[in-house]
Amino acid sequence: QVQLVESGGGLVQPGGSLRLSCAASGIIFRIYAMGWYRQAPGKQRELVARVTGGGLTNYADSVKGRFTISRDNAQNTMYLQMNSLKPEDTAVYYCKAGLGGSEYWGQGTQVTVSS
After folding, report:
1. Residue 9 vs residues 54, 93, 96: alpha-carbon distances, Å
2. Which residues pair with 98 in a beta bridge?
3. pLDDT band at 61 (very low <50, low <70, confident <90, very high)
4. What is the pLDDT of residue 85?
5. pLDDT band at 70 (very low <50, low <70, confident <90, very high)
6. Can you give the pLDDT at residue 32?
7. How far apart (Å, rounded) are the C-alpha atoms in residues 70 and 52?
8. What is the residue-wise DSSP string for the chain?
9. Are 24 and 35 in contact (CB under 8 A)?
10. 40-76: string of b/e by CB count within 10 Å (b at 16+)?
11. What pLDDT sits at residue 10?
12. Is there a contact between 63 and 47 (Cβ–Cβ < 8 Å)?
């Protein structure tokens, strides 16, 4: 059974930082492309950042220079370091694992940026 479990969300002030984690089980983690997505109220889910099994990364323009995605294949865990957070970063953040036609999602973690 595949499980993706996100953690690390919470309430932070503008300009603050958070680190999200996504712990995976039930898959051969190192061969999966992993990604962080987010969905704000009333908006569509959007890609935030993605990392391939080989470590190649890409980011949404809105987070470039502020967010860093990484993965630890030995720990079956993906991370998202979020710095200089803005109110518009407020959303539920989801992790996704993808390989070919298969994809799996976590349950999401809430990130709220507010003073």
Report:
1. 26, 8, 16
2. 33, 103
3. very high
4. 98
5. very high
6. 95
7. 10
8. --EEEEE--EEE-TT--EEEEEEEESS-GGGSEEEEEEE-TTS--EEEEEE-TT--EEE-TTTTTTEEEEEETTTTEEEEEE-S--GGG-EEEEEEEEETTEEEE---EEEEE--
9. no
10. eeeeeeeebbbbeeeeeeebeeebeeebebebeeeeb
11. 97
12. no
pLDDT band at 27 (very low <50, low <70, confident <90, very high): very high
Instruction: Please name every residue paired with 77 in a beta bridge, in sequence order, or none if there are none.
Output: 23, 72
Rounded Cα distance, 69 and 49, in Å: 6
Do 17 and 28 contact (CB within 8 A), yes or no? no
- pLDDT classification of 111: cutoffs 50, 70, 90: very high
